[in-house]
Design goal:
Blueprint (H helix, E strand, L loop, with lengths): L18 H5 L7 H8 L6 H4 L5 H13 L6 H14 L8 E2 L5 H6 L5 H14 L16 H6 L4 E2 L15
Parallel strand pairs: 1-2
């Protein structure tokens, strides 16, 4: 269920087109491009809850292009500028709990070895976590650790990479 390495990114790029979600995004240059390019697959709350470095956002965009995001270079540039202006932080990229390894749960999420094992066992039992709040149900997990790092942790199932290498950019 989980994979090692560069967890496939990650929080399933950012957006949705429904009115309540779009209302949570700050107005500004690039918002329309973000909704157009990313909005057909993702919920707006995801970007509003994550803070990344500019390089982190560049990685997110590059990964989403590999996964099939459609847009012009200008639109992707506008999306990057919007995200970097409105959702800038210190993290290079978020940790996706659904794809995390024991080591990532310990080092990024600050969990003990036992807590990390409990999270992985829970995910093996229930499948995909869609909200960090679901982790409150994990026996033996001090949820305060997750809550304290919520700016750097996400919980979603990212769309899979295309299996056909010819379809990857």
């Amino acid at each position: 269920m989980r994979t090692c390495g560069r967890f496939a990114l990650m929080f399933g790029f950012v957006l949705g087109l429904n009115a309540p979600a779009a209302a949570q995004l700050p107005d500004g240059a690039g918002k329309d491009a973000l909704l157009k390019v990313c909005g057909s697959c993702h919920q707006a709350e995801r970007s509003a809850s994550v803070r990344l470095t500019r390089e982190g956002w560049e990685e997110v965009i590059a990964d989403m292009i590999k996964r099939g995001a459609k847009g012009t270079d200008e639109e992707f540039g506008a999306v990057l500028e919007y995200l970097a202006a409105n959702f800038l932080g210190e993290a290079p990229r978020p940790l996706n709990i659904n794809r995390a390894t024991n080591i990532e749960l310990e080092s990024v999420a600050g969990l003990t070895r036992k807590e990390a094992a409990a999270v992985l066992a829970y995910l093996d039992k229930v499948g995909v976590c869609k909200s960090l709040d679901e982790l409150k149900k994990v026996p033996g997990l001090d949820y305060k650790k997750i809550d304290a790092r919520k700016d750097f942790i996400v919980c979603f199932e990212a769309p899979p990479m295309p299996k056909d290498p010819k379809k990857r950019p």
